[in-house]
Design goal:
With 155 residues, this protein is of the alpha+beta class. It has a single domain (5-153), classed as Nuclear Transport Factor 2, Chain: A (Roll). Helices cover 15% and strands 44% of the residues. The chain has helices at residues 48-51, 60-73, 76-81, and strands at residues 5-11, 14-20, 26-30, 99-111, 114-125, 128-141, 144-153. The protein has a 4-stranded antiparallel β-sheet, with helices on one face. Strands 1-2-3 form a 3-stranded antiparallel β-sheet, with no helix packed on it. The chain starts with a strand and ends with a strand.
């Protein structure tokens, strides 16, 4: 299991995963609740395998969804590990990350070792709901997909 994820027992019948961010904040993601990435699966049957290091994303879309779930959980270490070294920031601070609500994947494509995902990520902005729309680029190296960069659509 990756060093940034720890499974804890919340109640005798419920298990959750603590995701520890650099900020020291802890975000519990319940294994039996719907995965934040938006697929019709529980967190345990979806992004947990990526976050725990048990599996790697096999497509740019799968990596995008796992990264979105990592933003929801403020999992900076996972985000850094899946960010290509040529464009990764030296330090990722998620302390001012918004309250993410929903991911909408508009399209995704793969061409050999390059991929793109166009998505909208909805978040709480005061009393309103807002979204950011991005066209993200991914690259595959040694059989592993990495986030390279993205262009935010401001239209």
């Amino acid at each position: 299991m990756a060093d940034w994820v720890r499974t804890i027992r919340v109640k005798p019948t419920k298990i959750a995963v603590e995701i520890i961010a650099r900020t020291g904040k802890v975000r519990a993601m319940k294994m039996t609740e719907p995965c934040p990435c938006g697929l019709d699966k529980t967190y345990q049957d979806c992004c947990y395998a990526y976050h725990s290091g048990e599996a790697t994303a096999q497509s740019p879309e799968a990596l995008m969804r796992s990264r979105y779930s990592a933003f929801v959980g403020r999992l900076a270490s996972y985000l850094e590990a899946t960010w290509h070294s040529s464009s990764r920031p030296p330090l990722l601070d998620l302390s001012d990350s918004p309250n993410w609500l929903k991911l909408q994947v508009i399209s995704s494509s793969v061409d050999q070792n390059k991929g793109q995902v166009h998505f909208r990520a909805f978040y709480k902005d005061g009393n309103d709901v807002a979204f950011m729309e991005e066209q993200s680029d991914f690259v595959q190296e040694d059989g592993k997909w990495y986030y390279l960069d993205g262009r935010v659509n401001n239209d």
